[in-house]
């Protein structure tokens, strides 16, 4: 009996196949450590872009388009990341960009550093759930501390409030390519945001780029400006400047339409054919006469305005532009009032927009139509000048960050000191708090405290300073109660960054810490990855080849 049971146990057991052949499964502690390592390599890609002395990255995509940027979110979007866990870091950079606009590099760095400091605990066998609980606790302590430390600005004092907005915009521009001109651009950004209505809609700030000229030639138009559209003969005879102008906004085609391919008109003599042609012309002339009678001097249409119409308007001292982009037409409507009409039957004085001054002006190699002195000017346009196209694109991205920061600061009027000051203060607070707890949480919260020091450390490394020396000085100052001391990039030393006006809205820091902690918890809570095989092996499925030039079937 015993021998029979032994024999039975030696028989090969049938293998249970649950997943499709070729499915890649990895689980347990090695999987978690591998995910943390993948996130580390992502962090290394953006680490050097942090701060005023950060380096830029040149990324060439699959189509050969080169992008130069040091904006964390832009770099993360352009990197074609395939690792599933590392994609989490891309998502938090995108969410920080959409929510706040700035601090995208910081959020990736913080998440990577939290994982790096917690990795030894994972390797030693501490359960991920205990680590996650400690991370969440540390986050709550940090958010409470930021809210206590944040400095509130009185909104009713307009001068102080404007100065605060300019300081925040300048801090956001500090780490960008255009940091030399931050004074010039921070004023422009604050002017542009303060022209908007209470909802502060982003799409009401137009940014147009014109290559050539110096950065200082950039200008802010309080109203609408857009590039001259495609024009027909007769355009140069139209006046190019008006005062107290009435504007007709249309969605109508003002040109003779070609017949449809399958249209058929049967006529049996030339006179009848002439009637058909005359009727077509008459419809066009009736439309233009109605527009002229409405009293409009500037006609803008989303659809083409043909050569006949251009000449007709020129003879009557009217200006016209066809094929105006939709967003520009909407912004003109917002600024000048009026309505976009789809028929000429109802055109009257009530539906026309108005503005104090209209002119067509040469800016660099382009000609722009400018509408200024608009009655409900809740919109503006920034015209950027500069050398290379990549440089202008990066300038636009930098201004987008600064505009987002100013919008956030108007809504949440509390600020903290940047330059690593708030991170050092939070690090000190967590370290002190960890000493009051017994158990594993003491070590875990201590690790989080150390991780927060990555921001000042990286600021020093990127500027070529001795990070250890400067961090020791900062720890000493914060222990003495100087809560706003951070890295001073200009003097290779430490300074009170609140006095030095390195200000950031507290919402950036709260958002960055929350997003980084959420990403950390998410990566720590994954202990298995199941990757299904691609259809048809590793090769992507090719479409069947079609029949080429004269190739036989």
Explain how this protein is built.
- This protein is an alpha+beta fold and 553 residues long.
- It is 46% helix and 17% strand.
- It has 17 helices and 19 strands.
- Strands 7, 8, 9, 10, 11, 12 and 13 form a 7-stranded mixed sheet that branches.
- Helix 4 packs antiparallel against helix 5, helix 7 crosses helix 8 (182-194) and helix 13 runs antiparallel to helix 14.
- The radius of gyration is 32 Å and the shape is elongated.
- The chain starts with a helix and ends in a 22-residue tail after the last strand.
- The model has no long low-confidence stretch (mean pLDDT 84).
Chain-averaged pLDDT: 84
Distance between the termini: 71 Å
In helices, the fraction of residues equals 40-55%
Strand content: 15-25%
Structural class: alpha+beta
Count the helices. How many?
17
The number of E-state strands comes to 19
Q: Write down the overall geometry.
A: elongated
Give the low-pLDDT segments: none
The biggest sheet, with number of strands, parallel, antiparallel or mixed sense and barrel status, is:
7 strands, mixed
**Structural Rg:** 32 Å
In short:
The chain is of the alpha+beta class and 553 residues long. Helices cover 46% and strands 17% of the residues.
